[in-house]
Design a protein that fits this description.
With 102 residues, the protein is mainly α. Helices cover 45% and strands 0% of the residues. The chain is built from four helices and no strands.
Length: 102
């Protein structure tokens, strides 16, 4: 019965949480997953090490390395899709990079 309910709600193992305000931020709010969304993802994907965005000004060395890595990856996405955040600041990638302080 539990599996049937989880399947109806879209909470199958190995998936993503449903797109709603509880699990994902709007573009205006900085895009990305909320802490509830990360928790839901980790429940659906046991063993996952997904965590929320690094938004503090002076993170510790491990979180600073995560930020640096994210910023490098997202810069590559912007380059691949020809996104200029000064012209289109409302794009999700631009909002997420602002939130991560890239």
């Amino acid at each position: 019965m539990k599996d049937y309910v989880a399947e109806l709600l879209g909470l199958k193992d190995g998936g993503m949480p449903p797109r709603n305000k509880k699990y994902y931020r709007s573009t205006k709010a900085g895009a990305g997953m909320t802490s509830a969304g990360v928790a839901a993802y980790r429940r659906m994907n046991p063993g996952s090490k997904l965590s929320t965005a690094v938004t503090e000004n002076k993170p510790g060395p491990k979180r600073a390395a995560r930020r640096k890595s994210y910023c490098a990856r997202s810069a590559g996405q912007m380059k691949m899709h020809n996104v200029n955040c000064s012209k289109t600041p409302d794009k999700r990638i631009c909002a997420a990079r602002r939130r991560w302080k890239c």
